[in-house]
C-alpha cells in the first residue's frame, strides 16, 4: 500500500509539464521531490491532490484513485501561503480542519496542542495578517496536519523560517512520519531532503532524472568527495589524475574524485609539501548528485 | 453536503462580522430612519414659521372668506390699509413675506396680484390661487343662482370604467395592484442582484487572491463550494433586508405616520406570489453562479469590478426592458425577451403578473431558465476549479478557455 504515480504525463496545450513520471512512495516513508523552478514539482503535487487531472497515466493512493471523497486523508501545504488574512488563528484552523472532516470538539484540543508545540499559543486570537511570515508558515503547517492525514504533501515547507523554527518543523515532520504518515515534500534546501528522506526524485523538465533510495543513489554515484584544509598551494591538484572537480573553499579545497585510490595518491603527493589540518573523504552529497544530473546548481 | 453547510455558514459569519458590512448596514438604517421622519426633520429646520402675507383688499368683501381658507393652509394673512407702494417697500424690507392685492374685474369676479421679493417659493402663491379659485367658483355660482346640488352635479367626474372581455384578463383593480406588486418585486430583484452579486464575486476573488483557495479546492468539491458561497451570501442579504424592514417598520411606527399601509393585495391570486418567489430564486441563482464564476477568474480583488461589469449591464438591461414592459406587457418585444434566460426572471414574471400567459409558455420559460442554470453550474464548476489555479493578467474569454482546459486531462 503506497502512493503510486505510474507513467504520468501532464500537458498544457503545447508545453509538457510532467513527462512520463513513474514514482512509488512506500507507506510511512518520507519522499523528497527535487527540481529547479519549473521542473514540474507543483504540477505533480496538484495531480496527486486531484486538483489537476493527468493527461496520461494514473495516480493511486492505496490502490485507488484520489478524489474528493479522500480529502480527509490528505494534508497539503502549498508553496504560497494560503490563509484568510482577516480571520484569527483559531477560527482559521477550526474552519480548515472542519472542511477536512474533523469535528469541532476534536479540533479544539488539537489546535491547542499544536500552537503550544510551536510556541505560538499567544497568537490564537490574532488575525493572521498580524503575524510574522514565519509564524504564518507555522499556521499553514498546522492547517495541513491538523486532521492527522495519512498522506501529507509539503511544497517548500521550510521557506521563510529561521533555523530555530526549521528545527521545530523538522521535528514535527519526523514525528508525523513515526506515526505512520506518508510524506512527500519538496525543498530548496538539499540538506533538508538529505536529512529527512529515504527516497528522492530529481525532476528536470518534467522528467525524473534520478529516482530511488538515497543511500543507493549515493553508493552508485561512485565518485567521492575529498576535503583538504591546509596552507596549499592546491592549484596543481586540479590536474591530478582522478580528480574530476576542483573547488576552492575558505580554508582549502573540495575535490570530487573518481575513487578511493585517488585519495591515497593525493595524500602521498602532498605529504610533507605543506601543513595539512584536515584530510577527509566524504560521501557525495545530494547537491553533488543534483549538480551532476541537472547540470546546474539548484539555487 | 456537510461541507456545503460549513462553507455557507462560514461565508455568512465572516461577512456579517466584517466592518464594512456593519458600517453599510448602519448607514442605510440611518437613512431609512431619516426618510421615515423627513417631515419632522424639515419642520425642525424651517421652524413653524408660516409665511406672512399682507393683503390689500380693494373689493372689501373677499378678505374675510379668503383668510378663513388661508388659515387652513398654514398661511397667515393680515389685512392692511397702506398704499400699495408703501406695502411693496415693506415687503422689500422683509416686514412681510408677500403682498396680495385683491380686486374685482369688470364682471365682478375676483382678480389678484401677488408681490414678493422673489417668486422662487411656489407654494404660497399656489395655495392662495387655489383658495381664490374656490371663492370665484362660489361667487359665479351665486351670481348664476345655482343651488348646491347643481354645483355638485357640475363638478362631478364622468364615470368611466374599463372592462376586459378576455376571460382570464385581469380587472382594472387587479391590474393596478398587480402593477404595483410587479414593480416592487422587479425593483427588489434588481437591487438584490446588483448589491449581492458583486459581493459573491468579491468573496471568491478574495479567497483566491489570499491563495487559501488552493487548500479549499483540495478539501471541498467545487460545486459544494460554489453553492456554499451563494447560499451564504443569500443568507447575509436576507439578514440585511430583515434589519432594514425592521428598522423601517419601527421608524414609521414611532414617527406616528399613517404611511404604513399595505398595498391592498387582497385582489391578487395567491399564485402570483408563488411565481414571484420562483422567479426571484431562479433569477438570483442564475446571476449568482455567473458572478461566482467571474470572481474565480480574476486574481486580484481590484479586477473584480471590470470583470463583472458586463453581467451588471445585463441586469440593468433586463430592468430597463421590464420598466418599458410595465406599460406594454403585451408587446412582441417583451414577449420575445421574456424567453431569454437572462431576462426571464423579470420579464416572464412581469407578464404573468399583468396579462394572462398560456401555461405552456410559462413552462417553456421555466424549463429554459432551469436548463441555463444547470448548464452554467456545470461549466461554472469546471471554470471555477480551473480558474482558481490561474494567476496573472486577465482576459475573460481566454481565461474561461484556459480554466476549462485546466480541468481536462
Low-confidence stretches of chain A: none
Largest sheet of chain B: 4 strands, mixed
Q: What are the segments of chain B in which pLDDT stays under 50 over at least 5 consecutive residues?
A: 259-263
Shape of chain B: elongated
What is the mean predicted local confidence, pLDDT of chain B? Answer: 81
The overall average pLDDT of chain A, rounded, is 84
Order of helices and strands of chain A: EEEHEEEHHHEHEHEEHEEEHEH
In angstroms, what is the radius of gyration of chain A?
Answer: 23 Å
Number of structural domains of chain B: 2
Number of strands of chain B: 4
Strand order of the largest sheet of chain A: 6-7-8-3-9-10
**Basic shape of chain A:** globular
Write the CATH fold name of the largest domain in chain A. Rossmann fold
Number of domains of chain A: 2
- Using the CA coordinates, give the radius of gyration of chain B: 31 Å
Structural class assignment of chain A = alpha/beta
The CATH architecture category of the largest domain in chain A equals: 3-Layer(aba) Sandwich
The major β-sheet of chain A equals: 6 strands, mixed
- What order do the SSEs of chain B take from the amino end to the carboxyl end, as H and E? HHHEHEHEEHHHHHHHHHHH
For the record, give the distance between the C-alpha atoms at the N and C termini of chain A, rounded to a whole number: 35 Å
What's the arrangement of secondary structure elements?
The complex is a heterodimer of chains A (299) and B (409).
Chain A: E1 2-12, E2 15-26, E3 30-35, H1 41-49, E4 56-61, E5 64-65, E6 74-77, H2 89-99, H3 104-117, H4 133-145, E7 151-155, H5 163-178, E8 182-186, H6 190-196, E9 199-204, E10 207-213, H7 214-221, E11 224-230, E12 243-248, E13 252-257, H8 260-270, E14 276-282, H9 286-294
Parallel strand pairs in A: 3-8, 3-9, 6-7, 7-8
Antiparallel strand pairs in A: 1-2, 1-4, 4-5, 9-10, 11-13, 11-14, 12-13
Helix pairs in contact in A: 2-3
Chain B: H1 2-17, H2 19-36, H3 38-46, E1 52-57, H4 63-72, E2 76-79, H5 84-93, E3 98-104, E4 110-115, H6 123-144, H7 148-155, H8 172-209, H9 213-219, H10 222-254, H11 270-297, H12 304-325, H13 332-337, H14 344-354, H15 359-387, H16 396-407
Parallel strand pairs in B: 1-2, 1-3
Antiparallel strand pairs in B: 3-4
Helix pairs in contact in B: 1-10, 2-10, 4-6, 8-10, 8-11, 8-12, 8-14, 10-11, 11-12, 11-14, 11-15, 12-14, 14-15, 15-16
Amino acid at each position: 500500500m503506497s502512493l503510486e504515480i505510474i507513467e504520468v504525463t501532464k500537458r498544457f496545450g503545447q508545453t509538457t509539464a510532467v513527462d512520463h513520471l513513474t514514482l512509488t512512495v512506500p507507506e510511512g516513508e518520507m519522499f523528497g521531490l527535487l527540481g529547479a523552478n519549473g521542473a514540474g514539482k507543483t504540477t505533480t503535487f496538484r495531480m496527486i491532490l486531484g486538483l489537476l487531472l493527468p493527461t496520461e497515466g494514473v495516480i493511486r493512493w492505496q490502490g485507488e484513485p484520489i478524489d474528493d471523497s479522500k480529502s480527509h486523508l490528505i494534508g497539503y501545504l502549498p508553496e504560497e501561503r494560503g490563509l484568510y488574512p482577516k480571520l484569527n488563528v483559531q477560527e482559521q484552523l477550526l474552519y480548515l480542519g472542519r472542511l477536512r472532516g474533523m469535528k469541532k470538539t476534536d479540533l479544539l484540543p488539537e489546535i491547542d496542542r499544536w500552537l503550544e508545540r510551536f510556541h505560538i499559543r499567544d497568537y490564537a486570537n490574532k488575525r493572521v495578517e498580524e503575524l510574522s511570515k514565519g509564524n504564518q508558515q507555522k499556521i499553514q503547517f498546522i492547517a495541513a496536519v491538523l486532521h492527522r492525514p495519512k498522506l501529507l504533501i509539503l511544497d517548500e515547507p521550510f521557506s521563510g523560517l529561521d533555523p530555530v523554527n526549521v528545527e521545530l518543523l523538522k521535528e514535527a515532520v519526523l514525528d508525523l512520519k513515526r506515526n505512520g504518515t506518508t510524506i512527500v515534500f519538496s525543498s530548496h534546501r538539499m540538506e533538508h531532503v538529505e536529512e529527512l528522506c529515504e527516497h528522492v526524485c530529481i525532476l528536470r523538465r518534467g522528467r525524473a532524472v534520478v529516482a530511488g533510495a538515497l543511500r543507493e543513489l549515493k553508493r552508485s554515484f561512485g565518485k567521492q568527495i575529498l576535503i583538504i584544509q591546509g596552507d596549499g598551494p592546491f592549484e596543481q591538484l586540479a590536474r591530478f589524475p582522478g580528480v574530476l572537480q576542483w573547488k576552492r573553499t575558505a580554508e582549502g579545497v573540495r575535490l570530487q574524485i573518481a575513487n578511493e585510490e585517488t585519495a591515497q595518491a593525493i595524500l602521498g603527493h602532498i605529504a610533507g609539501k605543506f601543513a595539512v589540518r584536515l584530510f577527509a573523504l566524504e560521501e557525495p552529497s545530494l547537491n553533488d548528485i543534483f549538480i551532476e544530473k541537472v547540470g546546474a546548481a539548484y539555487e | 453536503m456537510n461541507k456545503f453547510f460549513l462553507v455557507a455558514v462560514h461565508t455568512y459569519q465572516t461577512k456579517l462580522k466584517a466592518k464594512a458590512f456593519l458600517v453599510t448596514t448602519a448607514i442605510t438604517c440611518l437613512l431609512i430612519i431619516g426618510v421615515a421622519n423627513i417631515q419632522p426633520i424639515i419642520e425642525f429646520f424651517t421652524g413653524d414659521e408660516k409665511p406672512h402675507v399682507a393683503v390689500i383688499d380693494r373689493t372689501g368683501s373677499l378678505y374675510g372668506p379668503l383668510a378663513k381658507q388661508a388659515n387652513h393652509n398654514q398661511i397667515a394673512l393680515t389685512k392692511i390699509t397702506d398704499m400699495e407702494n408703501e406695502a411693496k417697500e415693506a415687503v422689500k424690507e422683509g416686514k412681510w413675506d408677500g403682498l396680495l392685492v385683491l380686486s374685482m374685474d369688470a364682471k365682478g369676479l375676483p382678480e389678484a396680484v401677488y408681490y414678493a421679493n422673489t417668486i422662487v417659493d411656489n407654494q404660497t402663491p399656489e395655495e392662495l390661487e387655489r383658495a381664490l379659485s374656490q371663492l370665484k367658483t362660489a361667487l359665479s355660482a351665486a351670481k348664476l343662482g345655482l343651488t348646491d346640488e347643481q354645483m355638485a352635479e357640475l363638478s362631478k367626474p364622468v364615470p368611466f370604467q374599463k372592462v376586459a372581455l378576455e376571460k382570464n384578463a385581469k380587472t382594472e383593480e387587479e391590474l393596478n395592484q398587480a402593477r404595483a406588486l410587479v414593480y416592487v418585486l422587479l425593483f427588489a430583484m434588481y437591487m438584490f442582484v446588483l448589491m449581492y452579486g458583486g459581493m459573491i464575486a468579491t468573496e471568491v476573488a478574495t479567497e483566491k487572491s489570499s491563495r487559501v483557495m488552493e487548500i479549499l479546492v483540495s478539501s471541498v468539491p467545487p460545486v459544494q463550494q460554489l453553492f456554499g458561497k451563494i447560499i451564504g451570501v443569500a443568507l447575509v442579504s436576507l439578514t440585511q433586508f430583515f434589519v432594514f424592514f425592521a428598522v423601517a417598520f419601527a421608524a414609521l411606527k414611532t414617527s406616528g405616520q399613517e404611511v404604513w399601509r399595505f398595498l391592498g393585495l387582497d385582489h391578487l391570486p395567491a399564485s402570483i406570489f408563488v411565481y414571484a418567489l420562483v422567479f426571484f430564486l431562479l433569477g438570483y441563482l442564475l446571476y449568482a453562479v455567473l458572478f461566482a464564476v467571474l470572481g474565480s477568474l480574476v486574481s486580484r480583488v481590484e479586477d473584480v469590478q471590470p470583470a463583472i461589469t458586463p453581467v451588471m449591464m445585463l441586469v440593468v438591461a433586463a430592468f430597463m426592458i421590464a420598466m418599458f414592459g410595465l406599460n406594454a406587457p403585451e408587446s412582441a418585444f417583451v414577449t420575445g425577451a421574456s424567453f431569454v434566460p437572462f431576462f426571464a426572471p423579470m420579464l416572464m414574471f412581469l407578464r404573468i403578473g399583468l396579462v394572462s400567459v398560456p401555461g405552456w409558455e410559462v413552462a417553456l420559460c421555466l424549463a429554459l431558465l432551469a436548463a441555463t442554470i444547470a448548464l452554467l453550474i456545470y461549466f461554472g464548476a469546471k471554470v471555477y476549479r480551473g480558474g482558481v489555479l490561474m494567476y496573472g493578467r486577465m482576459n475573460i474569454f481566454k481565461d474561461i478557455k484556459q480554466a476549462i482546459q485546466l480541468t481536462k486531462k
